[in-house]
């Protein structure tokens, strides 16, 4: 046994080294092979957009090959038309820029007067004050005067000096050289487009065959898991592409129409750029908005066109991002916002502008792979939108750090949907179970125990509707370090309502007792149940077994006979506390014969199968959660609308 102990760290270190080397090799392959990988990835993603149209053509009755050719031909026609339209608009904008030169000069001059001119004036006035009451500075020595500032021609209306005529030379390039330059510039995009088109055709033709090959290669004999992963990825990517493409296309049309109405030239170009760059997460649409705003400021003499352009982009983007997108697909891509931003930076560094456009779908594929492949689970944790910790784990972690405010923020969000009893059952008690496990293993220190206790006390009191902020602040320093959490919370109520947590002269059958068996978990559970019932306007009181003996030893002439209608006996560990539970039930039955005894027996959190406990004849009802216990009290005390004293 001792000989095998050192092997584990060595093995883990070697595994980490293998993972690092493999990651470096993958990054190198992605970077140096981008010339081949980018067209293939583009073709695969385009196939997800074209595949629905292929299936539609096949339903009409066309063959598979004919459906693929028709869909690809339609895609080529649409893309070529858009490229031609954008190119025409770009040429038109480039030719029309010289006519806006006067407007640009006027606005630059106006901006300079409003900014630099005012700063120069203030600097001169400040210099006079510093030099002593406006007497001015000493004259500079002869020969050392600073050269006068000469404004450039574009800041003034003065005509620029004519440049000397150049010596006659070659007037123009021959047509063949011009054609060569044009072809050399357009060759790379045309080459990439051709490769993408060819790969797209074959991907669509062999769609089913490629899927089967990938399942056989990645899944081996586990066809179920691989099929589930592929279906998940296909569903998420298809939903992402269709919804995003539809929304971005609609945004482009809206911007096109809006800019046409307000009078911005070349509105189709700006609408197409908006639709295209909106695929870049978060910043793409605002880059186009800045460019269009600058263009609007250049084409109109005043500033109204610029203001209307900014308002248009703000209105359209707010409506789409806050109303339309959540309604259509609810941001369910499965990626966290930070992961989207980091992915955009990473893929743009790796593959340039194409990587920036494909960053979200590529990262989505990695998250889906991490969700279904155990070795890649790190990707799902880092990039996915699912919480890395469960709610009980987050409460326990923040309690160790003493961060009560963050726990309260999450608790109030939870309470908007469900009750406080459900929060205790689903979050608070499981979190304290984690603390109990660590305490039993000696994994938390005394300081951490105190931090957990103070935080939980603060949270429970803050969520109590009967506690005021002033009362909670005044009592915060009175938490007894030696008392359990439940005992500390109970003492706070005793300070407000007395030793027996309320008057003893009450209507008959109006009091509910919550009895813990003495452990820390039992005391806290009984106290939480007491607070839950008091929030329901039920006169609930938290007692211990020793309190029964103390109550009998004291005279209580004002106590109402038969005041207790129900008694909850709480056990957080029923399997280990069966004897103590039976003794407590027998004591309650002997002292309060007419009370309804309800056993609150919490299930073991780590148990896979719920164990059946021996029945107790003195117990009227058995519940397994605080929420069920509250429902029992509401059913037995329907007149619980009266406020607790």
From TrEMBL:
Pfam families associated with the record: AI-2E_transport
Source organism (scientific name): Dyella japonica A8
Keyword vocabulary terms for this entry: Cell membrane, Membrane, Transmembrane, Transmembrane helix, Transport
Subcellular location: Cell membrane
Membrane topology classification: Multi-pass membrane protein
Taxonomic placement: Bacteria, Pseudomonadati, Pseudomonadota, Gammaproteobacteria, Lysobacterales
Keyword Cytoplasm belongs to the record: no
Any Gene Ontology CC annotation: plasma membrane
Record field: transmembrane: 12-31, 37-56, 68-91, 186-205, 240-259, 279-298
This protein's record includes keyword Transmembrane helix: yes
Family according to the record: Belongs to the autoinducer-2 exporter (AI-2E) (TC 2.A.86) family.
Protein name listed in UniProt: Permease
PANTHER family membership: PERMEASE PERM-RELATED, TRANSMEMBRANE PROTEIN
Chief location of this protein within or outside the cell: membrane
Signal peptide span: none
Highest taxon of the lineage: Bacteria
